[in-house]
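Box S1 | Example of a co-folding query
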Amino acid sequence: MSYQGTGVWVVAEGRKGVLLPSAFELVTAAKALAGQRGEGVTVMVVGAGADAAEALSVCGVAKAVVLSGLPELVDDAVAAALASAAKAAKPRTILLPADVFGRSVAPRLAVLLGSGLASDATALELDAEKRLVVRRAGFGGNVTIKVLVKSPAGPELATVRPLAYPRAGTNGSKGAVETAAADVAAAGGKTAFVSFAPDTSGEIDIGAADKIVSGGRGLGNPEGFAIVRELAHALGAAVGASRAAVDSGWIPYKHQVGITGRSVRPKLYIALGISGQIQHMGGMKSSDVIVAVNSDPDCPMMKAANYAVQGDLYKVVPALIAEIKKARGA
Ligand SMILES: Cc1cc2nc3c(=O)[nH]c(=O)nc-3n(C[C@H](O)[C@H](O)[C@H](O)COP(=O)(O)OP(=O)(O)OC[C@H]3O[C@@H](n4cnc5c(N)ncnc54)[C@H](O)[C@@H]3O)c2cc1C
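Box S1 (continued) | Returned holo structure for flavin-adenine dinucleotide
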């Protein structure tokens, strides 16, 4: 007898009690699926409390459940608790964010539930039998792959890339808010929380930034990032990078934009010395306004840009910084 589940679950991630925006994006994705099946959406809140559940409960979901009593940052325990709750409630589909948390918890959950899992979705749809189909980038972003999630023994699972969906807003209706004690018995206590080391760099995170200034191989050397940071500082922007710059060891991976880096959707994206290969564009092409500074007028980034400045970035950027400072009276 194959698994019979109903409803779509969203695993809403909190860190240190603060809900991440991905929760609202997953609700948008989940509502679209559930609507086509005539089902409801349940949000399982992990790592945040009743305030988070209240905020999600007004986004058109049936229920928001806080899983309480989870040890901090122990993914085995999170997966065990979600598996225990899912075995009792039998959802048809479970969505998690395709970030560090989701990429760690989802495979563990899939094993515990005997589920099929597709990762890194950029879009979700249903086939004629209303089974989950995931679209994701493949072969370095050169093709889009459609993956049918076959899951005869448990709920179908998917992780969804941050920013793939817009955040759900309030829609007037109010879902139930509940608290459930997390059952972590199945976790086996193999991992334990030791300590938390916060990022003390003071840098703006690219995932949350309204403005990003990114540097690529065109900077020529690691010292080139000084000018990227100077422009970013003048604009109050975060610093991004192409993979070529990251692979060269010029800047840490957390700054990488693209299909194997982070997806970003800022209001302003400034690309300095970045050619705009498909794998980079895949992470930033949804930016509201793109500005490119490049010596090659024919490269893809210059073609995609709303404002394309042809020239040597070491001449253009200092002039730009000077104008910004002048306009601000500094
Ligand atoms: C599986 C796979 C995954 C990948 N994932 C990613 C990813 O997530 N993110 C990513 O970025 N890449 C990714 N890549 C790599 C990607 O294909 C490109 O190699 C990379 O994006 C190129 O980086 P770049 O634009 O900085 O370098 P280049 O392509 O070398 O471009 C440098 C640019 O700088 C310009 N330039 C040079 N000097 C100056 C100057 N003085 N002033 C102004 N302009 C100048 C040049 O005209 C050129 O356009 C991936 C590749 C593969 C195969």
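Residues 140, 216-218, 242-245, 256-261, 273-275, 277, 279-280, 283, 293-296, 299, 312-314 surround flavin-adenine dinucleotide (CB under 6 Å). Residues 95 and 115 are 12 Å apart (CA to CA).
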